[in-house]
Amino acid sequence: TLAKYQNGHWQLRVEDRPFVIQGITYASTKIGESPHDGTLRPWMTLDDNRNGLNDGMFDSWVDANRNNRRDSEETAVGDARLLQAAGVNTIRVYHGQLPGGAYDPSGYDKELMRKLNAEYGIYFVMGDFLGAYTVGSGAAWDKGTDYTDPAQRERMKKSVEAMVRDHKDEPYVLMWLLGNENQH
């Protein structure tokens, strides 16, 4: 909740206690993957060794000898513990889009998000780009989002509504974020 005091100041409160966001935008990038060539996968879905643990959050390690594989002396630490030790309590995430600009829930792992919240105290700011980079609007990249176009506005509205409906009752949601790097 947001509390407004008599002096006009505002305070974010979680579970009726003051809450200061110490947050990041997190991504776990495997060696050789890049968003520029389309090989970067959603970090919440990574479990390449199929052991049931998210690779970044629970199976990451320091490759001390730089041989691109985990050797027996290289203990998995996991970013969840490192984030917790650094005081991080919030991760900002944005959803992707399906053809036509529709909300894409496939990049989320709600069980992982619940675990990070319950065991590591990490909340999520759930973001929708609201047409930034044409995400959600269905616009062509070279033309960009036209916020005066009723069809694009309707697609963005449906994208936001689908995201909120999908996550509205989850304990890990700290707040909703619309847009990215908004200037006004």
What does this structure look like?
- It is a single chain.
- This protein has 184 residues and is α/β, with parallel strands linked by helices.
- Helices cover 22% and strands 18% of the residues.
- It is built from four helices and nine strands.
- The strands form three sheets. A four-stranded parallel β-sheet has the order 4-5-8-9, covered by helices on one side. It has a three-stranded antiparallel β-sheet with strand order 1-2-3, with no helix packed on it. Strands 6-7 form a two-stranded antiparallel ribbon.
- The two termini are 23 Å apart.
Provide a concise account of the structure shown.
By secondary structure, the chain is α/β, with parallel strands linked by helices.
What is the secondary structure topology, with strand pairs?
Layout: E1 2-4, E2 10-14, E3 17-18, E4 23-25, H1 55-58, H2 79-85, E5 90-94, E6 96-97, E7 103-104, H3 110-120, E8 123-128, H4 150-167, E9 173-178
Q: Provide the spatial order of strands within the biggest beta sheet.
A: 4-5-8-9
Going by helix content, strand content and strand pairing, the class is alpha/beta
Distance between the termini: 23 Å
Query: Can you count the helices?
Result: 4
User: How large is the radius of gyration?
Assistant: 19 Å
Give the proportion of residues in helices. Answer: 10-25%
Low-confidence stretches: none
Largest sheet composition? 4 strands, parallel
